[in-house]
């Protein structure tokens, strides 16, 4: 028979996947001889079985729970449900990773109308017994049965008011007895049945509630954001109660073996005498610092320090522990690796290596790559943030904190920034035309769009805070007004954004710059020594390139040339090129653009100091560069000496039903070879100039986008090589260059062995490859993907985390086919997935040479690549 229930004495920390983090650690502490109240864990297998069986318990699970109860009764000498000396239990959830939104704890389970009287006689403390019973009724009703706890709080307050009392501790045994009756009456009113008196029914209901909470909406959202599979399930820990509220020699507290904010090696925590656990957490009374325990009970304090030291040395990490003192006897209810700030994580990792507790590889695995995000961006002042309440919530699209005056257009953002005012750009959604306003803004807030929308991608690239998809906003961009959370905001009003949580605040909150200390450099050097995967950046200008190199980028994996075209002094020449009626006219416009593009590439090559750069030829559909409003078309027509009708007709003729799959990418170079000629000229001339002036060994990598057929690439490659070779010969120079392609159409992946005959490198454009493989556009998917998450058809956003089953299979196949044709072919990835840790691990495992991501994700990618190498050496 399969085992679903384990006593703490039957397991250890290696069984975390089966018993959850809490259960595995309770078992490990028991094994170490740490005083832990006896108990057992109902496993994650039982949770999955519960769901498989249509949310019901099989007889074998119930039987195993009952058998485990018998064992706990034997050890404690108490009987569950006994009228004179009842065994009382706590029930806690415990998945393999800590998950906010899971079921809260239930304490004092096993009490009923008869057992409470026996418990009162046994402890000779009726007040304590009835206090435990009223707490149990309230917790069970709220946590297990879903009855609002505020009503119970109201009953408690009414009794205190009637008796002119201020504190719960002033209530007498009789008062508490009266309250339990009122609580049970309210339970009956809410549920239409009596409060359960059978302890076994209470226990089974509580275990069921934990399993149910694994699939509540909060848990589903948390799992999606943190890439936790639903099949992990949760475990349930059932444990004998240890009472911290049995008088002045009892107490309860929480402690960390190091400071979780700074990482400093010091005992950090607090406790309350004569209290139960939730009193400390709820902040009803002010707790004492842990150091004061030495005065209250020196013997217990000495034992406490010995055990906490033992636990940190055993787990080789900072521990977060819950403890209870029952009439002078110390018990540990939990230990786990403590949550900490990014600064603390780095300090603790570096210190533990210095103390000889960890190797550098073990230390690298102690820091989650995503934690580094908060190190690189401004954050809110903690005290100020604690005073503020969010008025709305969107998606945490780009981390950091931003505070500024509301503006509704790129023009307003530029103007106010020029006057020295910090601004937050609020838009229905952003487009490439907003780029200058986005650069000027401290933060960006959009009503529409997901984690990979235009706003999100551009903001992450610039390291700018962004909250996208805040659908509760009602906005009128023309009149410059929006409303959210019952408040109305006009241009110039202050708001604050938290790009790490998605929270929006209707006030100015002070921000502080992050401090990157010496521990960061030490730690990242360890990561760089370990990793096999190179890390490049996606950068379109010298400013982003410099920033990325500072963060450790080893080159550029994607330079999008079109991003340079939207600047004010260039857009006119770009539009001239697009509306040209002949090749001759087009070349005149391209001649204006050539020195601009060349200047950009010179700046980028200089910033790279000899590091490689992959430059993508023009990719977007041409209509993206044209105005769409009649007023703007009239203005452009006048500037260009055309009639309004003539230009409007051209603009309309360029509109496409499905531009993502339309006239773009290499198709532009096939239709207008002169565009590819101009861009190749700019790239090669810039490389030659920087090589000559600075002495850097530059090998340009020219990338042709959106290839679906080998002959397409051969056609465009011929234009590139003919142009490049002519310039190199003219200059009598020695310059090598490479021509490669972006693999972003499934057909290119399927025929990669053919494509590799022409391509010297592949860069996987996983944004478009994901869209084309799934058959939906990332701009529209936000309308229906939430339903897919709710029904667990998809568990994560395929644009944020690479779909390894489908899209990943194409990447793996293309890599293998490409290497058959050209064994030395360079393989990289340049989609948004290049900065996602689980996607980076996949890239490592399939043997890619590098990943490329936005500048502010470079440190995250470096650490994720080190994690991947430690887990699976290559």
Automatic annotation (TrEMBL):
**Looking at the record's lineage, which domain of life comes first?**
Bacteria
Q: Which residues form the Pyruvate phosphate dikinase AMP/ATP-binding domain?
A: 59-291, 302-349
Q: What is its EC number?
A: 2.7.9.1
What species does this protein belong to? Answer: Oceanirhabdus seepicola
Catalytic activity entry: pyruvate + phosphate + ATP = phosphoenolpyruvate + AMP + diphosphate + H(+)
Gene3D superfamilies, sorted: 1.20.80.30, ATP-grasp fold, A domain (3.30.1490.20), ATP-grasp fold, B domain (3.30.470.20), Phosphoenolpyruvate-binding domains (3.20.20.60), Phosphohistidine domain (3.50.30.10), Pyruvate Phosphate Dikinase, domain 2 (1.10.189.10)
Q: Record-annotated residues binding Mg(2+)? A: 744, 768
Q: Which key words are in the record?
A: ATP-binding, Kinase, Magnesium, Metal-binding, Nucleotide-binding, Pyruvate, Transferase
Family assignment?
Belongs to the PEP-utilizing enzyme family.
Record PROSITE patterns = PEP_ENZYMES_2, PEP_ENZYMES_PHOS_SITE
Question: Where is substrate bound in this sequence?
Answer: 560, 616, 744, 765-768
Asked whether the UniProt record includes ATP-binding among its keywords, one would answer yes
MF terms in GO? ATP binding; kinase activity; metal ion binding; pyruvate, phosphate dikinase activity
Which catalytic residues are annotated?
454, 830
Cofactor names:
Mg(2+)
Q: Which residues form the PEP-utilising enzyme mobile domain?
A: 422-502
> Where in this chain does the record put each PEP-utilising enzyme C-terminal domain?
518-869
Name of the protein this chain belongs to: Pyruvate, phosphate dikinase
